[in-house]
Specification:
Blueprint (H helix, E strand, L loop, with lengths): L11 H26 L14 E3 L5 E5 L2 E12 L4 E8 L7 E7 L6 E5 L1 E2 L4 E7 L8 E10 L2 E2 L7 E7 L5
Parallel strand pairs: 1-11
Antiparallel strand pairs: 2-3, 3-4, 4-8, 5-6, 5-9, 7-8, 9-10, 9-11
Length: about 170
């Protein structure tokens, strides 16, 4: 016997319908918001329409108030673990904790900080191997220069990119 009046009692069918509707609403919300969460970061950021400079086509240069910057990327070879690259940055300033951060441009694969070592003449360098993409042999990477966790005081007006063409994974 129930203490609720008959008109307020929910039948088993009604409870199932409410639970099913709740699951459908939750699924729709996951699909809508999940796609936003999985987007590559900075894809909607101001300046995402920056001109692109392909580092493998030659050095990239730009001038800001502090002076001329130049970034070069050379292919060192493939030792079986992927292609090794040599990154060299000529800077008019001396940033502290200078990093080059690799970010997937064609597919988000995380962020990979590469510490840059001072060469003493205003240049900084590092050797690195870009992570391999398991879904194909080609991957476009972007390099963002940072001072520790922060952007440089005068960020590059160019999008520094390069494309890897590693062997297919067997």
């Amino acid at each position: 016997m129930s203490i609720m009046p008959h008109r307020f009692q929910l039948g088993e069918g009604m409870v199932r319908a409410i639970v099913a509707m709740g699951f459908i609403v939750a699924l729709v919300l996951v699909v809508i918001f999940g796609s936003l969460w999985l987007k590559a970061p900075d894809s909607d950021a101001p300046g995402s329409e920056q001109p692109v400079c392909d580092l493998l086509a030659g050095p990239c240069e730009w001038e800001v108030k502090s002076g001329l910057w130049q970034v070069e990327l050379g292919v060192m070879g493939d030792e079986g673990q992927g292609t090794e690259y040599q990154l060299t940055v000529y800077s008019p300033t001396t940033p502290e904790r200078f990093l080059a951060v690799l970010r997937g441009e064609s597919m988000y694969m995380g962020e990979y900080p590469v510490p840059l070592r001072s060469e003493g003449d205003g240049s900084y360098s590092a050797r690195f191997t870009a992570p391999l993409c398991t879904t194909g042999s080609e991957m476009v990477w972007r390099i963002d220069l940072q001072q520790g966790q922060n952007a440089l005081p005068e960020p590059a007006p160019l999008k520094l990119v390069f494309q890897t063409q590693d062997k297919q994974i067997r």
